[in-house]
TrEMBL record:
BP-aspect Gene Ontology terms: phosphorelay signal transduction system
Domain Response regulatory: 14-137
Protein name from the UniProt record: Response regulator
InterPro entries: CheY-like_superfamily, Sig_transdc_resp-reg_receiver, TCS_response_regulator
Amino acid sequence: MWLYVMNDRLHPRRILILESDAAQAAQIAAGFQGDVAVTEVITISQLEAAWDFLRGQGEYQTAGKPDLILLNFAPAQSQSLLKTLKADRQLRQIPVILLNQTEDAEVIFQSYLAQGNCYVLKSAHQGDLKAIAQHIEAFWLGVATLPTH
């Protein structure tokens, strides 16, 4: 458990999972139940609702900003959302991890070109999804130092 000792600035975090498949989103969310303090895991499966959350509009007026975003919509939607996030002065500092099942080199290249912080190949197997979330939690919330809002 040395990973968690390295970051002495641990405090509760908000994770936003933008995933078009609700069942997979639930499996990923279940993986964020480890030793690192996570205040809240929010899952959103619709692009319009994702924008409302990120902009604090509609039912999300008091939601606050996430500390980390996991993004998996169709590649074109994910790329568009990522580019818009990184162009927004209020949102661009939030790390975005792209999850996708495609190994297409061009999609991966475009994800990094659009300033995605990480590209993770996603398995459809539920045990793998939980493990991926646990690894993300260990690194991004246990080792990395994230910006504060």
